[in-house]
Each structure stands twice: as structure tokens, then as C-alpha cells.
Write a structure and sequence with these properties.
The protein is mainly α. The protein folds into 2 domains: 101 residues, Endonuclease Iii, domain 2; 136 residues. 55% of the residues lie in helices and 1% in strands. It contains 14 helices and 2 strands, in the order αααααββααααααααα. A two-stranded antiparallel ribbon has the order 1-2. It is globular, with a radius of gyration of 19 Å. The two termini are 21 Å apart.
Length: 275
Amino acid sequence: MTILTVAAEPALKDALNSLYEKYNRCIFVHPDPLEFLYLYDDPLDREITGLIASSLAYGRVAQILKSVSSVLERMSPSPSSYIERSSAKKIAADFSGFKHRFTTGGELSEMLVGIKAVREKYGSLYACFKGGFDNDSDTVMPALQKFTEELGDGFVCRKNSLLPEPERGSACKRLHLFLRWMVRSDDVDPGDWEDIPPSKLVVPLDTHMYRICRAIGLTKRRQADMRTALDITESFKRILPHDPVRYDFTLTRLGMWGDPDLELLLGETKMREVA
């Protein structure tokens, strides 16, 4: 379904790399829930923080930051230690009054108890994900499916606003955002999960990313679903096979800012086409 031509790939790659070098820096992270991972040195703290922050990454950014901060304050000083020492009953009590848009304290507590169960079974979220990972798979999707099943194994109701089900066709933007943070390693992404190849990642597809990618010819699909996320990922693999998610942070920043550099990348005509 992709419409990017072979002739256009080198020029687009040059433009994307130029933007990456300019904007893929820590000084441009705020406001982004990724910044909460920088508060911790221990990978066990970072992976729990990453799952919480990415799971709550919907809605207005100010509210996202406020909600994530509220959760982490209750788990201070170490999310990992809090999960280890707290019973399911205590977790439920600690977050009984929590609310983030349509996510309830009960849903958040279920996910935290799911993290606790995974930690007790595997030792870490990383070990759980790696246990379901097969390097022969084209993407992380099969491992992600097993990972969400493990996290949601004890849920009273399988449906949970914080944990989408990949097999249902959702783009799973927040889960793929979490994996980007965990797997990639550069000036922005911490990359603690070293044995998972970045080449297997899938683009975290939101409205900003979809509009930009459609405008520059990386997909012609008309719905921002999982098939489109995979289609766009394949286009990025033609440009950068070993790291197809490399440009995600940069492009989403430009999409939110309405930066002049984005207009130069897209061209005025293409900007009008997706307006």
C-alpha cells in the first residue's frame, strides 16, 4: 500500500536525517511523558515508569504530565520497590481516587498488579517481553501480544483503557511508544532492552504521525489503524532498515509545533492535501 517511490527515498532520507540531527535532543523532550524516565537510574524503575507514562499518554499533554506525576509520587522513591513491597490490596487502596480522562483508579491498579505478577513470574517486564520474542518474526507484534496477555492475565475484566489488545486491530500507539523508549538508544530514548533489535519496532501511530506520513508518501491508507502503522513502518524500513522508528520523536514534535521545517519537508501542496 505504500506510495513512496524508489527515486524519492534518498532525498527524503536526507531531509529526515537533517531534522533528526536538529531536533532529536533532550532539550526538546519537554513536555513529553518520556521525561519521567530520566528521573531514574535503575532500568527496573525506568521500565515500570515507561509503561505507566506511555499508557497514560492520551489527551492534553498538561493533563498527561499531571496524571503521570501523581502516580509516581504515590510510588516514590522507587516504582520498582513500591511494586515489590505492596500487596494488591494496598495498590488498589493507594489509587482508589485516581482518574485520568476515562481511565479509572481501578484500571490503573489492575495494570500495576499485573506488573507485580509479571515481576514475580519473570523478574522484570523486559524478561517477560523477551520470553515471547522471536527474532524470526518481522516485527515485535507477536511478542507484544504475549506481553499484554501476561499483564492482563489477572484482570477482572479483560477490557482496560490502559492495555489495548493488539489482535483487535488497534494501532496500539501507546504500547509501541513504550517499546520505542525501551528498545532504542540515542540522545532521547533510554534503550534499556538491549537484546530486542530496533529493526523489529513498529511506528507509534497517532494523528500527527499519520497526517505527516500520508503527506510525504509513506502510506495511502485512510485509517490510522494497525495495518496503517505496519504499512508506514515498512516504508521507513526502505529508508532505514535497521531502525524504522528513528524519526518518530522528531516528526511528532514537528507535527505538534507546526514548525517551518515541517512545511519545508511536506511542501505547501501536500500540506493543503492533508489539512
